[in-house]
Amino acid sequence: MAIHNFNFYNPTRILFGQGQIEKIDKYIPKQAKILITYGGGSVKRFGTLAKVLTALGDRQYAEFGGIEPNPVYETLMKAVDKIKKEGFDYILAVGGGSVIDGTKFIAAAAKFPGDPINIFAKGVGQGQAIQEALPFASVLTLPATASEMNSGGVITFKEKQAKLSFGSPYTFPQFSVLDPELTYTLPQRQLNNGICDAFVHVLEAYLTQPIEAMIQDGWSETALRTLIKLSPQIKEGHNDYAVRANFMWTCTQALNGFMSPGVPEDWSTHNLGHEITAFNGTDHAKTLTPIILATMKVRKDEKFAKIVQYAENVWQIQAGDDEAKYQAAIQATEDFFKSVDMPVRLAEIGVNAEDIDYLVQQLERHQMTALGENRSQTLEISRQIYQTAL
Ligand code: NZQ
Ligand code: ZN
């Protein structure tokens, strides 16, 4: 076993640290006509937008606010129309994963020949590849998704109760500003979501099968230990710059591709979780914690060796045989999620036994019928995972 062949590409520049918003001036062309995108208003309330405007100086700009958490297709299409009517040539996203994901879609849709619904497949469009996008950048306000340094996005289709992802080599941000001080205004709920979203991103590319990918495994284990170690200090109002700096960079690293080139990747927990958010609006990260615990149980045979490695190297569990280590690792993970007030059972997020048929039907509708690193997670196994997570 060895690292699989890979083709790794990540062109996003990172401007990291206190006061880095002012560097925007250097990296956006002076003559650019900019559309600034943001969410429900936190960037106005907490002064981030004002700092961005100062940095932009006398460049021409307009604002597009109101991008929802779990960004909605129809809202984003309003920004696409605005770009087409008013002729913007650069987009600057200021916000969390939802604003950045939404901006990726807007950037691609503004240049897309034909109906942008066709960017998506899986029951809503034709799945045509993105060939071009407007240049865009981001100012990150919420460490969690790593959208600031990857090329993927997840868009919500309200009517169809679907959350569908897209990606392309053209939808990397040109640069992202990561100022840890921008996280000081985050409520505990979003801090906890960020810790666990990043934690599960690492697990999705780590809890598969061992292939002697030493750097990828070591990097993943360090990220997991870092999140565990920092979590008691990632508290609302506890504005320790060193803690927030490590937190922010760990979340970015968790899904910028650096930990996972050439290794098997799962992503079934995300696939099952997205159906729950589409169904009842649960925060993204809160759908992941119950599902990954159940996945570790239901797909024990496939994941056993890696879960034992996780027990030893992340949780420092050395006592007992492999079975004991496997069990202890699941328990430690559950205790960790509880310690940051995250759900460990679906009942805690409003999903009950009678909802499972619907969730499995939605997976089928979205062609999620062979999930996981081995494409072995059938609808029947997904059903077992939902049931085990109850
Ligand atoms: O909308 P505003 O008013 O800005 O408030 C937001 C929002 O209500 C608030 N917030 C953001 N920064 C803040 C702040 N409040 C106070 N202070 C700040 N500094 O936080 C709320 C949640 O924001 P959102 O962007 O929705 O959260 P998150 O960053 O967790 O993004 C979640 C979205 O990203 C997708 C998820 O599916 C979900 O749609 N994901 C994207 C991924 C990617 N592109 O690679 C991977 C992830 O697995 C995930 O699927
Ligand atoms: Zn996630």
Short description:
With 390 residues, the protein is α/β, with parallel strands linked by helices. 44% of the residues lie in helices and 11% in strands. The chain starts with 12 loop residues before the first strand and ends with a helix.
Uncertain stretches of 5 or more adjacent residues = none
- What is the oligomeric state here? single chain
Mean pLDDT: 97
> Beta-sheet strand percentage?
5-15%
How are the strands of the biggest sheet laid out side by side? 1-8-5-4-2-3
Radius of gyration (CA) equals 20 Å
Structural class: alpha/beta
Query: Any guess at the CATH architecture of the largest domain?
Result: Up-down Bundle
CATH class of the largest domain: Mainly Alpha
Order of helices and strands: EHEHHEHEHEEEEHHHHHHHHH
Number of strands: 8
- Give a list of the ligands: 5,6-dihydroxy-NADP, zinc ion
The helix content is 40-55%
By CATH's scheme, which homologous superfamily of the largest domain applies? Dehydroquinate synthase-like - alpha domain
Major sheet:
6 strands, parallel
Principal-axes geometry comes out as globular
Rounded to the nearest angstrom, the distance between the terminal CA atoms is: 36 Å
Would you give the CATH topology of the largest domain? Dehydroquinate synthase-like, alpha domain
Helical segment tally? 14
Secondary-structure map with pairings?
Layout: E1 13-16, H1 24-27, E2 33-38, H2 42-45, H3 48-56, E3 60-64, H4 73-86, E4 90-95, H5 97-109, E5 136-140, E6 152-157, E7 162-167, E8 175-178, H6 188-204, H7 214-230, H8 241-254, H9 268-280, H10 284-298, H11 300-313, H12 322-339, H13 356-365, H14 379-389
Parallel strand pairs: 1-8, 2-3, 2-4, 4-5, 5-8
Antiparallel strand pairs: 6-7
The structure holds 5,6-dihydroxy-NADP and zinc ion.
Residues 145, 197, 201, 270, 284 line the site of zinc ion.
Domain Alcohol dehydrogenase iron-type/glycerol dehydrogenase GldA: 11-180
Keywords: Oxidoreductase
Domain Fe-containing alcohol dehydrogenase-like C-terminal: 196-378
